[in-house]
């Protein structure tokens, strides 16, 4: 099971977000929670049954509505965040979240209201650290500066969209994070499986879980240039006798400022591959070859 093998790997964070529980994976009867919470209740049970709390790092996020939409069901207001953190703790069956992240920027809430509430959440012991996710660099810098000005808890991490076929974060966000000492934990490091060597040009759908179910990936990727880059990943993997996914992760790990990609997995072997990628070191020429076909893109993954 994922939690157990994560423990063996000794280096895994368990990412979640309020909104991901919207897709019920296994319904749990007789639970006083909305159906979308099932995944988190199960995750909490597995964590409590198989691990010591001080040996795992639990990260979750708040922003998107869960279990329906009504005024204050989402966003980063004080009212929402104070509910969201309590709901997450209940679902996960834990006393604290290690890394509590804001999933997106909220243009409808004053940033001071959000930041003071996050600070209060940390001071109350319900979260150890706070992080942020995809937004514009100017928005993130504004929040960092406001936290500093008021002496509130600072964001320690940025969870952004960054991989070999989406590199727009290299313009502003990565230099900002390096300069501000903020850790970078990119999402979709394999471009939702696109860089794993299983996707082909043309109409044929690869025989993998994500390629058959992940419609959003088609909105983000699958251009000609994306395929050219993915083909270079596969060629290099053959030459180096490693997996394509390991080349894509090794590239990311070689980028200045990247702390740890957040890998997704639909098989246990995916986790083993991810851990194995830590041993793959790319040369400057290999990196240049992988990067060479890239063309600038519009912003993808947030707006
Ligand atoms: N902050 C945000 O806005 C945001 C947005 C998106 C995701 N996230 C977070 O980021 C995490 C990772 O995102 P992601 O799932 O898109 O990551 P990803 O690592 O880019 O893609 C994971 C997919 O790649 C394939 N794969 C993984 N390892 C493989 C291997 N070794 N060999 C072959 N195929 C492999 C699997 O798909 P197949 O089924 O096709 O094999 C797997 O589901 C999510 O779980 C979520 O926590 C955050």
Measure the end-to-end span.
Answer: 36 Å
> Can you count the helices?
12
The CATH architecture of the largest domain would be Alpha-Beta Barrel
Poorly predicted spans:
1-12, 21-32
Which CATH top level class of the largest domain fits? Alpha Beta
Strand order of the largest sheet: 1-2-3-4-5-6
How many domains? The number is 2
Structural class: alpha/beta
Commentary on this structure:
The protein has 303 residues and is of the alpha/beta class. It folds into two domains: 1-159, TIM Barrel (Alpha-Beta Barrel), CATH 3.20.20; 192-257 and 268-303, no CATH class. Helices cover 42% and strands 10% of the residues. The protein has a six-stranded parallel β-sheet with strand order 1-2-3-4-5-6, with helices on one face. Helix 2 links the parallel strand 1 (13-15) and strand 2 (57-62). The longest helix is centred in the last third of the chain and has 17 residues, at 224-240. The radius of gyration is 19 Å and the shape is globular. The model is unreliable at 1-12 and 21-32 (pLDDT under 50). The site of NADP nicotinamide-adenine-dinucleotide phosphate has 27 residues, from helix 7 and helix 11.
């Amino acid at each position: 099971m994922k939690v157990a093998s994560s423990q063996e790997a000794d280096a895994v964070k368990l990412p979640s977000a309020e909104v991901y529980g919207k897709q019920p994976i296994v319904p749990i009867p007789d639970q006083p929670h909305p159906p979308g919470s099932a995944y988190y209740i199960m995750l909490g049970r597995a964590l409590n049954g198989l691990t010591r709390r001080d040996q795992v790092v639990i990260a979750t996020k708040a922003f998107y509505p869960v279990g329906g939409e009504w005024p204050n069901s989402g966003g980063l207001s004080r009212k929402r965040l104070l509910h969201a953190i309590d709901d997450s703790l209940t679902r996960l069956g834990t006393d604290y979240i290690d890394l509590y992240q804001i999933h997106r920027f909220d243009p409808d809430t004053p940033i001071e209201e959000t930041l003071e509430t996050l600070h209060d959440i940390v001071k109350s012991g319900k979260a150890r650290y706070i992080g942020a996710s995809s937004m514009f660099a100017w928005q993130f810098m504004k929040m960092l500066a406001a936290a500093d000005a008021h002496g509130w808890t600072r964001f320690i991490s940025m969870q952004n969209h960054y991989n070999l076929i989406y590199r727009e974060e290299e313009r502003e966000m990565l230099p900002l994070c390096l300069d501000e000492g903020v850790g970078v934990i990119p999402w979709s490091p394999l471009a939702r499986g696109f860089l794993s060597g299983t996707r082909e040009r043309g109409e044929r759908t690869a025989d993998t879980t994500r390629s058959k179910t992940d419609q959003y990936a088609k909105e983000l990727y699958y251009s000609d240039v994306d395929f050219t880059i993915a083909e270079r990943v596969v060629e290099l993997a053959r030459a180096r006798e490693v997996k394509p996914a390991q080349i894509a992760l090794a590239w990311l790990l070689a980028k200045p400022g990247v702390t740890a990609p957040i890998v997704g997995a639909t098989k246990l072997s995916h986790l083993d591959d991810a851990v194995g990628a830590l041993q793959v070191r790319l040369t400057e020429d290999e990196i240049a070859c992988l990067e060479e076909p890239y063309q600038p893109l519009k912003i993808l993954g947030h707006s």
